[in-house]
Fold this protein.
Amino acid sequence: MKLLQPVNITPEEMGPDIAQIIPGKDPELHVSASLPPVKRIPVHQEDDSPRIIPVCEPTLGGNETKYVLECLETNWISSAGKFITAFEEAFAAACQTEYAVACANGTVALHLALAAMDIGPGDEVILPTFTMIATINAVTYTGATPVLVDSEPYTWNMDINQVADKITPRTRAIIPMHTYGHPVDMDPLMELAEKHDLWVLEDAAEAHGATYRGRKVGSLGHAAAFSFYANKNITTGEGGMITTNNRQLADLCRNLRDHAFSPERHFWHKYLGFNYRMTNLQAAVGLAQVERMDELVAARRRNAARYTERLASIPGITTPPEAPDCTNVYWMYSVLVEDEFGMTRDELRRFLAHEGIETRTFFIPLHFQPIYYQTFKGQRFPVAENLCKRGFYYPSASSLTRREIDYIVDATRRAQEQARAA
């Protein structure tokens, strides 16, 4: 018998120029005795012990415990219960949409929406190469062909001019990804989609609460897919949501997520359905989180403003964008390390890790992923590649304190001073 085998190709085998773009392993993280104390010390540490600043962590402390205990006390712990409906209604209201459909995670939210849109073999779906692999995997699950476009250099979102160039008679859908919490320029994209009769499915996994021209992300396309993973702006631990103003689409997604049981009779199925349900336990956490979503988003924006203010005096650090007609919700506070800084992105990350500061590199573009490399071999996307080479996230949790941000920025400054003194 045989098991599935990986696609084994190294960055070096892709080419020396590509090997210089793709980051290596994360640096070893050290605890630091000089980090400022905070109230949220993990239980396994003493108040005065050395610690680290994680790149992200969930911010709980509202009604999560109360609602979860109600699930346990009433035995409603699976895929039925009042919290699922309450969470869907509250999240739809937060996104300014008529409908929301809860599901197991953000990846299946994408897949479920595409399935309801009847995307399948022979179809093409346009998406950015600079995104999490879940975006393209959802397309691949349908049997459709993914078509990649580059990012534009200011917002790091998909280049809409390239989208127009990639539309063919086989194109059925576009997936704009709101990168790191900054909305895509949706109006021209929707005009383009309307002209060619295309579905637009927002990948809003990182953009809870973001706005575009006064409208909420999640209400801008024909549908949107959200993730509630533990590092997202609001979380259910694992979970996802589809938002839409299309009642037929919402009803179909709701049916398909639960094996497509027919209302005519039990155990009767007219569609190929999925087990993509969210549990009442997860929804209980989600409802408590969405009750505080404005507060949690405001905290990230406040922290981002502090980062941007303090980093402005450090040459060679490009801070994240915010277009005039948008609100960026800064899922991750993301920066680029330019040549002017005096050391590479990876060298800076190693320095910060030694100071107890956890960071993450940007996405590796989809056209460089081993599983998709042969599909896109020879295609190059210079903006996405530059983002991959230079970008990383600072710690970004809503619970991050002002003192921690100042410590992180001061460590960045010390790294530059050390590099320039060498």
Confidence is low (pLDDT under 50) at residues 39-46.
